[in-house]
## 1
Amino acid sequence: MTNFYKELNISAFDAISIAQKIASGPMLFQTACTLIDHGILSILEKHQDGLTLQELAKESDLNEYALGVLMDMAASGQIVLVSDDEKYTLSKVGFFLLNDNMTQINLRFTQHICYEAMAKLDEALTTGKPSGLAHFDKSWETIYPHLSELPPKAKKAWFEWDHLYSQTAFKQAILKMKEEFDPKLIFDVGGNTGKFSIACCNLIEDAKVKILDLPCQIELAKANIKEHGLEDRIEFLGLNILDDNELPQGADIWWMSQFIDCFSEDRVLHILGGIYKAIKDDAHVCILEPIADRQKFEAASYSINAGSLYFTAIANGYSRFFSTKQLTSLIEKAGFKVDKIIDNLGISNSLFVCSKA
């Protein structure tokens, strides 16, 4: 594992420069969003020789004043470059802001889910409640039962963010499970919209799946399953996994994808403990999670650590993305052992393959 944060070998001048950029970070973020939303970066991409403010104003819906303050900040943020004859061109940073799918999804998630709500981070940290969630509805206690009620842009941003990190790893993870275990029955715990279950049926021809999730989520999954014509291979069980349920038995694989990061440590232990009581002796628990200290690149670790603050301020007030040490400890406390960890699945996921200790 790589520790990206053990030391910082930069000068005091560079350090204070970074500190200044952090201090004005929200201004740069909003600048980037505005430039994208008004098509300014797209216009610059088409004019690689550059445009003056006057030329930009003729091609956009913003006047020269608006463009002037935006482009000055964009230049400071290295989103655009400015020539000596005051022509603006798109930089490499601007290109990726505009065209990189992962960057776009993270940007929209921050813009539509996190930005205003994150002003309540301090309150959330001190109260243990997702204070920022009041931005959407003051009566909501957690975000999960209300995902279908989010405003359209926020709902789109949330599901794209959630699916980006999990779904890019599904195929690799499923093929690993097929190769090692050839499972016939899989329990998809916290199945969300059914994307994993559908992928399982497509990649493991004789496997059947049962989705275990909140009743409101089950309804969303059922629509997707019906659309794919998989009603005969995918079953459903609506329940709250945090209740003292008698969980179903018989699965070869108990699957959880970006699920346990939605809960506090004591609740994760409760979930794993319930599975321990129901699981067959020769079955396995497979946990797919983005783990900050298992990343190849610092930018991925940065994004995962930022995601933990979303859980704090908005999602529920008490969960996070776990470190390797934290997740392993919880697995072992619940009576399981980690047989292996498979890294670099999809964009940033690791698969913890576990069995009864």
Note: The radius of gyration is 23 Å.
## 2
Amino acid sequence: MIKCVKNYALDANKGVNGMIGNGFSNKFERKFGRYAIPNLSLYLVICYAVGYLIYIINPSFLGYLTLDPFKIFMHGQIWRLVTWVIIPPDTSNIFFVLITLVFYYSIGTQLERVWGTYRYNVYLFSGMLFTILGSILLFLYCLISGATAIPLGTESVYVLGNGAAVYFGAFSTYYINMSIFLAYAATFPEMQVLLMFIIPIKVKWLGIIYAALLVFSALSGGVVTWVVIGSSLLNFVVFFFTSRNRIHMSPKQMRRRQEFRRQTRASNRVTKHKCAVCGRTEEDDPTLEFRFCSKCYGNYEYCQHHLYTHVHIKPPHEVK
């Protein structure tokens, strides 16, 4: 049993830390890990739910929340740097929206359990940051090309000198969610899902199909498509294709890893009180009261059950 736990610990350290810790070292995690947001997937899903409610009440209002660098830098609408995150990736049908929210919450939670809260936070926030940087890069390209803005309701389409149209609404949470799915497919390739609730298929095949579609879209599209797809999925490239190690963990391995962490924390926990007779501490029973015995030689502490019933410890020279 000890050998199995030890080997598993080594594998976990080599795998998870090796896969995601190469670019972002443990030094940064120790320094900034306390600022990580636990259960980040839940907050992301809540943002989507709020965005969907806004869509139901006033669909056109979502146009004021998109990631449009022209509106940000030319009109001072800086809230767009944040509010684009609440726009849901799908607004077609309430049923599919609910299924999508539950699905991404589920896979995001599993990734956080395996990677750790800090690294999962870095993965998501880096994806959002790369998306913002990609939109700014495309904005500069539009300025250089002399783009002309054409109002489209609450949004705008920008026409370049060569006639190409740029729509910044393409920078959305859709590819952020897809980066989560690709990360899940790479981490749990053998997991099965029910395609259309009927067909069982391994996640790795869905990941391969989606990656192929992305490549096809990028090759068939222009500069705008390259920037949108590339910037939104750059976090996946950084975290996986530049890693030396790989790890694919099943749910059973996840439970073993969590149990090992709990055992490690329990073994490293320092207690303040311990009964010299029964050995119980405040961790065993929070209601226990501990006192030192003034008649014992040395600092011996006893719980209330043995404070008056123990045999007093005498100095060595008095022991016959």
Note: DSSP finds twelve helices and seven strands in the chain.
## 3
Amino acid sequence: MTTDFDAIFKAYDVRGTVGDQLDADGARAIGGAFARFVTAGGDTAILIGRDMRPDGEELAAAFASGVLQHGLDVVDVGLCATDMLYYASGKLNLPGAIFTASHNPIGYNGIKMCNAGAAPLSFDSGLNTIKALAIAGAEPTAAQGTLRYHDLLNGYVEHVRSFVNLNSLKPLVVVADTANGMGGLVLPAVFEALPFHLDHLYPELDGTFPNHPADPLQPENQRDLCNRVLEINADIGLAFDGDADRVFLVDEHALTISGSVTTTIIAQLILERHPGATVLHNLICSKAVPEAIRNAGGKPIRTRVGHSFIKQVMAETDAVFGGEHSGHYYFRDNYRADSGLIAALVVLEALSRHPHGLSDLVSNLDRYASSGEINTVVADADAVINTVAAAFPHSIQDRLDGLTIDMGDWWFNLRPSNTEPLLRLNLEAPTLGEVQARVAEVQALF
């Protein structure tokens, strides 16, 4: 076994390079560990899916054998997007695991796991235990589990469509770049029989990513999408990551729409259907997000960054929706899980109902300038954070996630990376010039 358990167990999932950090023997050990972990909660079967990466089939089969050897059944859902796995976990009330490395390049693979009902698993709420069990190992049980296959695509398509009023949809011209990822499977199935004119870039499932990396957060990976939007005068562009759980938007002028603005678009439409409901936003979202939620009659609640925190707060507050600036969008009626496709459809309904283009729809929603996330290598993140906090003694401060300082007309969040010696700075101010000046002011304290 060459699996490096210390390297691959992250804050929210398992991920690493195949061969030197993760191999089939390691996947089998993790499968057995996951089986023992969920058995303690009374579960008797585990859902297993995989994305299109070339080594996914071998790794998923090894993981399944580990589950079966420890007496639990396996429900194999085959090729699927991450949000399909969450849908199945919620619908069937089973724990699940999908082999995917999301937006990482060829050579990487990993495992996203969840408890029954799509409930989240983080390192502090179970992955640490699964890691310890995988390292310790255990003899197979006398009784072997059974393997069965389950096709969930049709049920998933119907579920995704249930989040919009299909009669409101108009024949918009939509360019979608699924980057040879799992969006190539789910997007055409959801869009079939809908009135959109779909122009689909790189729909072939190919985990070698022959066209560009499946990481739409990087502007260079949106270049083909933007060019195509302008070429065919499309109404909107959609960029999905490798496992299709995140979506990024570009408008009819090929300008990128931020995750904060997308959160606002979705929140406004959902609040029409759920007046007065609670809506979550993570703490690096623009101040414009809670302002718009209040204006729409909703109750905004600010959360830490990360899906396990958002899902926990959703459960505690019965929030109907939650958005992250990074392109993850969570829906209460989707078992509190995130879904790029549900988010895309809700935006398309909002655009269908708007008399003008997407740029006009968002024109009043993007009221502030932002720095984007700036990463800086530091020797001691806690010491830097304390120094910065002391430099703004008259500000409003909190430590919900790193350090947030609010100066009234500008604010910033400084938080350490979970896995690297980095500090991540996000800053917002009224103008780009002020953003640049304030960033320099804060960074001078590092």
Note: The mean pLDDT is 96.
